[in-house]
Amino acid sequence: MGIWAVALLLLPAQADPGPHPAHEAVTTGPEADLVPGSVLSALEDELVSLHRRLRPALVRVALDLPVPLPDGGSEIREVLVSGVVIDQGGRFVAPGVVEGPLAAVRVFRFDGQDFLAQPLAHDPEYDLTLFQAPDLDVPPPPLGWPAPLRVGMVTVTLGNAFGLDGTLALGFLAGLNRSVDQTSGLLQLTNPVNPGDGGGLVANRRGEVIGLIKTSLREVGHRQLAAGHPEACPDGCAEFTRSESLSFAVPIERVLRAFRDQLSYAPPSRRWLGVLVHESYRPELAERLGWPDPVLLELDRVLADSPAGRAGLEPGDVLLRLGGTPLEGLAGLRFVLSVAPAGEPLELEIGRGGEPRRLSLVLSDPPPRQRD
After folding, report:
1. CA pair distance 158, 85, nearest whole angstrom
2. Which listed residue, of 176, 219, 239, 359, carries a Cα 20 to 30 Å from 341's Cα?
3. Which range, of 49-63, 87-101, 252-266, 303-317, averages the lowest pLDDT?
């Protein structure tokens, strides 16, 4: 039980200033609000509510794996990771540390009850495994897809850091489409990530899951040094181990696509445009085109036999809107292509020669080599 220390400040005697003004009653306890209606009070209420709503979707997974011994035998060791329920029927995703024959897979619900689970599928790109525990009886949380992701978004993470179940952390989305440890397309977060958090959930301020915790830059450095691969870190693994608030997560869209054949719902393949494009800082051109952002999407190359080629796009064109939706950077383009219909004519607004133009574009499914 905690001990509160009370400090008393003794002041020298002073002349009586006269009648003391009436003091307002001071309320103490969990319901006390020292600054009614404050931003911090509202933030606190939101975080408490988010934790309460998201906590059931976070699970702890115990994998009993056979570990080889020097004498040629093996012993069973328990590995603990986090996981997130993403579909009905007890389907959840956790880091794919299930190499070799499994002796047992147990999943622990937020109330401490454990259930047997079976692996359904594995995604080697992000090293994630889809499991099913039919008796888990936990509904999936709302998913933040389809919805655009923007740098600066508030992010809430829930994991099981060092076995501490349901650890909450607050941060921001710091970057998109990052590559680390030979894995690309990751979200960069400022939320702290510790051992045991891997596989935990990342949610937006509305309580929608937008990703699964992957790793931290510090953990990458330690892992590569321990494995004897310092060359795996471009800037030096020892430098990585000194990093702070550099964490990474797999976008929920990528998770859903990875297991589309096993889930009741998954996004369709991202539509194919057939261009090479980059972000270009062109404030004067943006002003001429009436575009509010000085960063424009400029085409480098247009494939001839592609939706872009058939629509008449040319290198140097600037992409502005597709189907009325603004294309805000590469992340915005990727999002629009992930939700746009195929086979239907869409109005594409572009800039060419400093003037706005409108084209008709019909997107298609990607060819086999371009599929997700």
Report:
1. 13
2. 176
3. 87-101
Torsion angle, alpha carbons of 246, 172, 41, 203, to 10: -100
Could you tell me the sign of the dihedral formed by the alpha carbons of 139, 256, 196, 51, in that order? negative
C-beta separation of 351 from 289 below 8 A: yes
Angle at Cα 177 formed by Cα 299 and Cα 282, nearest 5°?
A: 35
Sheet of 91-95: strands edge to edge?
Answer: 114-116, 104-108, 58-68, 74-87, 91-95, 128-132, 118-123
Q: What are the tokens at 341? A: 């219909």
What is the C-alpha to C-alpha distance for residues 267 and 255, in angstroms, rounded to an integer?
10
Q: Are 57 and 85 in contact (CB under 8 A)?
A: yes
Q: What is the rounded distance in angstroms from the CA atom of residue 110 to the CA atom of residue 127?
A: 24
- Is it true that 154-258 and 275-370 share their CATH fold? no
- For domain 275-370, the CATH architecture is Roll (2.30)
| Structure tokens that stand for 294 in this block | 């000085």
DSSP of 65-104 = EEEE-TTS-EEEEEEEEEEEEEETTTEEEEE----S--SE
Both structure tokens of 81: 């990771």
The pTM of this model reads: 0.78
**Rounded-to-integer distance, Cα 65 and Cα 185, Å:** 30
Q: What pLDDT is stored for residue 234 in this prediction?
A: 61
> How is residue 257 annotated by DSSP?
H
Domain regions of the chain by residue span: 55-132, 154-258, 275-370
What is the CATH topology of the domain spanning 154-258? Thrombin, subunit H (2.40.10)
Cα dihedral value 308, 310, 313, 315, nearest 10: 80
Among candidate residues 179, 216, 182, 210, the one with its CA nearest the CA of residue 197 = 216
Q: Which segment of 142-146, 247-251, 361-365 scores lowest on mean pLDDT? A: 142-146
The predicted structure's pLDDT at residue 269? 76
C-alpha–C-alpha distance, residues 180 and 232, integer Å = 10
Residue type, 95: P
CATH class held by domain 55-132: mainly beta
Give the model's pLDDT for residue 230.
65
